Amino acid sequence: MNNQGLESSNPETIDRFESFYRDMLRIRRFEEKVLAEFSSGHFHGTTHTYLGQEANAVGVLEGISRDDIIVSNHRSHGHFLAYGGKMHDLFAELMGRSTGVCGGRGGSQHLHWKNFYSNGVLGGTSPIAAGMALSEKIRKRNNLTILFLGDGALGEGVVYESLNIASLWSLPILIVVENNHIAQTTPIDLNVAGDISKRFDAFGINSVKIDSSDVIEINAVARELIQRIKKDISPYSFVIDTHRFGPHSKGDDTRSEDYIMDIRKRRDPISIHAKRVTSERRSEIEKAVAIEIEEAFTAATADPFPSG
Ligand SMILES: Cc1ncc(C[n+]2csc(CCOP(=O)(O)OP(=O)(O)O)c2C)c(N)n1
Ligand SMILES: [Mg+2]
Q1: What is the residue with the minimal CA distance to atom 4 of ligand 1?
Q2: d(CA 217, CA 58)
Q3: Is the pTM of this model over 0.85?
Q4: So where are the chain's domains?
Q5: Which bound ligand lies closest to the C-alpha atom of 50?
Q6: Separation of 146 CA from ligand 1 center, angstroms?
Q7: CATH number, domain 6-301, options 3.40.50.970, 1.20.1290.10, 3.30.70.260, 3.30.360.10
Q8: Tens digits of per-residue pLDDT, 218-255?
């Protein structure tokens, strides 16, 4: 474990480590609030929280440029917040308010803001992302598209049609597989045969695999891959072994409490990174995030519903 932050007096390194900490904590506290408030009746539809996976969104998206495109899935809140989306707008979207990301019509899984898109149809996002990457390539804009998939989406045939085209047409796309070893309630050994990286090999798509919840390690790989894609104009994949701390949705978790306690203890991205930020700064950040959450939530509850 790298304790560089505490040893370093370089203000840029300190800032960077603090901002990783803040960004992950914002997602963690946002998601905890969503789960805690669901029973209060403020939110509509369903939700899938990103608890435990924060280092993926924050580590991957830190390296993007302004015009890069993100295509997310049903577990989109962490990706959206790491992209720069506003907490208030996401709370309001979950509450169906007109001030939400999509005017309250999209809900938790269907967000669009700037170059960020999410869709709840598993794997259905793959051809959309491939098409966007193709469009950027044809226009010679040197933007890349990042597609986030879960391990469960690898059971969808359309993913492989998209990989085929992405490879044949050398599309500038980074396919990030967040392998949290479970799809709803189906553990990976009942769902995915063989080695995930080899699936990419079969299409001639280079793949990097990491088993880490450390935002610094994830960020280092993602930055390298993003640069390579922009230079080579070709697809790459990044398979991240990760862990989901919460239920699939709001309360549907079939895993044992011992298992959850174990992954929370060993694989918490926030505790892993915390050692690089001083305890004074951590408590300041913690307080600021708590205020931000309460203000965003309260403001959203007072917003109007869409008319008509
Ligand atoms: C085409 C399709 N089939 C089924 C579902 C229902 N569904 C929503 S999430 C999910 C499991 C997804 O697992 P995974 O891809 O591993 O992502 P994770 O939830 O673990 O982040 C399923 C089956 C869906 N949204 N779309
Ligand atoms: Mg999964």
Answers
A1: 122
A2: 11
A3: yes
A4: 6-301
A5: 1
A6: 18
A7: 3.40.50.970
A8: 999 999 999 999 999 999 999 999 999 999 999 889 99
